[in-house]
Specification:
Shape: elongated
CATH superfamily of the largest domain: Rod shape-determining protein MreC, domain 1
Radius of gyration: 50 Å
Helix content: 40-55%
Number of strands: 12
Distance between the termini: 136 Å
Length: 275
């Protein structure tokens, strides 16, 4: 078996070598022929060269397309990366602008609130402290609120507390940096008031509801719904002329719709009632 394979190999080897040598000779002959024909400016050679060129151009064109596509893809990726970077920058700038806009709106609202508050404080009373209203954390009163200001800021007990729309209540407890406000709606609140149209005095009495009542009106009172109620100044606790609310109801059952809503008051003035 081994002897036969060896003989077969020796028999086939000369045939392969002959074919290789013949192919090389043919290629060399063809190349030399084309070279001689090109030198001689033979029309047949020109036609042959043209045919070869015509055949090669589509092949070269197809072969170059991947490079063009690769270049275009690279340029597209570069553009996409640049656009993404620009979008990130613009997004960050937009966030900053929105933050600045929100801060500006807060300052504008705070400024408007403080300006309105100055209009409510009686003109003849220039001694007052402006404080920030904070959430109530509970206390002995049903209707009360806390201020971020106390004795260290000049706040004292029994001083009137006024919001931008009108009276809110009075100070009942004072700490070094905080104070508690008894609201007009609390059942313990009593405020001397006067009806501007009828010029009749009464007491605004809290009832733990939304609408305090008008008490101690004189017999045959001419106070009616729609009359504006302000502080009378009696007793020296509340300054005279501070807006309180407007009368609602009819007959002997009259209540007052308050101008100021403590839940919406951000800043208030604590007015010194001493002269």
């Amino acid at each position: 078996m081994a002897v036969r394979k060896t003989r077969s190999a020796y028999i086939l080897l000369p045939g392969k070598q002959w074919l290789n040598r013949a192919g090389l000779a043919l290629l060399a002959t063809a190349g030399l022929s084309l070279l001689l024909m090109s030198k001689a400016h033979n029309p047949a050679a020109d036609r042959l060269r043209g045919a070869i060129t015509d055949a090669a151009v589509p092949v070269l064109s197809v072969a170059s397309r991947p490079l063009d596509v690769a270049y275009e893809i690279g340029a597209w990726i570069a553009d996409l990366s640049r656009v993404h970077a620009e979008n990130v920058v613009l997004r960050n700038q937009n966030i900053q602008l929105l933050q600045w806009q929100a801060a500006a709106k807060d300052l504008e609202a705070e400024n408007a609130s403080l300006r309105s508050l100055l209009k409510v404080v009686p003109a003849h009373k220039s001694d007052f402290v402006t404080a920030h209203m904070v959430s109530d954390i509970g206390g002995p009163y049903v209707r009360s609120a806390l201020l971020a200001g106390g004795s260290d800021n000049g706040v004292r007990k029994d001083e009137a507390v006024v919001a931008e729309s009108g009276l809110i209540g009075r100070i009942v407890n004072v700490g070094a940096s905080s104070a508690r406000v008894l609201l007009l709606s609390d059942i313990n609140s009593r405020v001397p008031v006067i009806a501007e149209h009828a010029q009749e005095k009464a007491i605004l009495a809290g009832n733990n509801g939304e609408l305090p009542t008008l008490a101690y009106l004189p017999a045959g009172s001419r106070v009616e719904a729609g009359d504006r109620i302000v502080t009378s100044g009696d007793g020296g606790v509340f300054p005279k002329g501070v807006p309180v609310g407007v009368v609602v109801g009819q007959g002997s059952s009259l209540s007052v719709q308050l101008f100021a809503d403590p839940a919406k008051a951000a800043y208030v003035s604590v007015v010194d009632t001493t002269f």
